[in-house]
Specification:
By secondary structure, this protein is an alpha/beta fold. It has one domain: Rossmann fold, CATH 3.40.50.720. An eight-stranded mixed β-sheet has the order 3-2-1-4-5-6-7-8, with helices on both faces. Helices cover 32% and strands 18% of the residues.
Length: 246
């Protein structure tokens, strides 16, 4: 296991004094690798908090470029990076935040053809904004036996869950068996909402790496920002799911 040097011990001291993290847990984080797919509203806080927490290797996958209209919610980017690839904009910010973290940008869309990339990572985070990508990520995670930390936002509502772990529970397609039609039309998003949901995805990821707490396995956590209401829906594996039932 990778040991911490004196600079890292100083940097992560607020983790090290937590009994459920301590030095052994911080070394687990340093050794871990996470792939963040999507560097938009959700991916922004996810990437920043995983970097700050000291996750050793963070992959970034997105083929889009930064647009001015992104900046209302995609806080990892800035006016200075408009026009740049999102993975490069994000990687630069992350490296300036924590030089101990290795950042691996992949400027491509996640498809069945590019899915082999996730084999090199321990945890996969779905921070995408379209249904076709989510179903493809889920199928690849099941095939390669990788946990998938899911989040989604629309209007004032968001949701989070954890799929495909060895601790049982359903896959994404068990819960959402029929993909809706992608219209391609932009949807409204309350600017702070991806920050809330993305931060929770980061928390679920850290819990999986550390083996602490109760991950959202078999639970869909739903949040409405207008009413500040949280509630959970129990989810179960579908014995007839075409992706994971075998």
């Amino acid at each position: 296991m990778s040991s911490l040097n004196s600079a890292e011990i100083n940097r992560y001291q607020r983790h090290l004094i937590l009994p459920k993290v301590d030095r052994a847990g911080q070394e687990k984080l340093k050794q871990a690798s996470v792939l963040v797919i999507g560097l938009g509203g959700l991916g922004s806080p996810i990437a920043l908090y995983l970097t700050a927490a000291g996750v050793g290797t963070i992959g970034l996958m997105d083929d889009d470029v930064v647009a001015t209209s992104n900046l209302q919610r995609q806080v990892i980017h800035s006016e200075a990076t408009v026009g740049q690839l999102k993975v490069e904009s994000a990687a630069d910010r992350m490296r300036r935040l924590n030089h101990f973290v290795t950042v691996k940008p992949f400027s491509q869309r996640f498809t069945a053809e590019t899915a082999a990339i996730l084999q090199g990572f321990d945890v996969i985070i779905d921070a995408t904004d379209n249904f076709s990508a989510r179903y493809a990520i889920n199928a690849a995670c099941v095939r390669h036996q990788k946990p998938m930390v899911y989040g989604a936002v629309k209007d004032f509502d968001g949701q989070i869950s954890v799929f495909n772990t060895r601790l049982s529970g359903p896959c994404y397609q068990c819960v959402f068996p029929h993909p809706p039609q992608d219209t391609g039309e932009p949807v409204g998003v309350f600017g702070v909402l991806p920050g809330i949901i993305g931060s929770m995805q980061a928390a679920e990821t850290l819990k999986l790496i550390l083996g602490i707490g109760t991950p959202l396995i078999g639970q869909l956590q739903v949040f409405n920002a207008l009413d500040n209401e949280w509630y959970r829906i129990e989810t179960r594996q579908n014995s007839e799911c075409p992706i994971c039932s075998h």
